[in-house]
User: Which sequence fits this backbone?
C-alpha cells in the first residue's frame, strides 16, 4: 500500500510535509527490494542536504544502497532509534522507520516529487 498523503522521489524516498519541515524515509517498495536492513548511516543534525545528493546509506543482508535527499534543506532531526534497530525500517517504513527531518530551503519542496498514483505506476511490474 502506498500512502496517498505523502510525496515520493524516483529514488524511492517518501516525504511528509508539515509546514517547512519534511520528514523523509524510504518506501515500502524500497525496503522490500533491499531485504533485511541491518545498518543505516544518516547525516547529522545541522548538516545541509541538497536535492538529488547522496545523504547516507542503507546496508541490508543483500547489498548496500545510497539514500538520496529528495529536497534541499537543513537536517533538524535524525531517527537515532535506528542506530541500534535498523530493522524498524523494514517493519514500519512510513512510521517509526523514518530517517531524517529536514527544514526545507526550497520555495516549493514538492516541485521535483511525485504523488502516490505516479509512484504506484513507477513501481508496478
Assistant:
Amino acid at each position: 500500500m502506498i500512502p496517498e498523503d505523502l510525496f515520493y522521489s524516483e529514488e524511492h524516498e517518501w516525504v511528509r510535509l508539515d509546514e517547512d519541515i519534511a520528514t523523509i524515509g524510504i518506501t515500502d517498495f524500497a525496503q522490500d527490494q533491499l531485504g533485511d536492513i541491518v545498518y543505516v548511516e544518516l547525516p547529522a543534525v545541522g548538516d545541509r542536504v541538497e536535492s538529488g545528493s547522496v545523504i547516507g546509506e542503507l546496508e541490508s543482508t543483500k547489498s548496500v544502497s545510497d539514500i538520496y535527499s529528495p529536497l534541499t534543506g537543513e537536517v533538524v532531526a535524525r531517527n537515532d532509534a535506528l542506530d541500534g534497530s535498523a530493522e524498524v525500517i523494514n517493519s514500519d517504513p512510513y512510521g517509526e522507520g523514518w530517517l531524517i527531518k529536514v527544514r526545507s530551503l526550497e520555495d516549493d519542496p514538492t516541485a521535483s516529487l511525485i504523488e502516490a498514483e505516479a509512484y504506484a505506476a513507477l513501481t508496478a511490474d
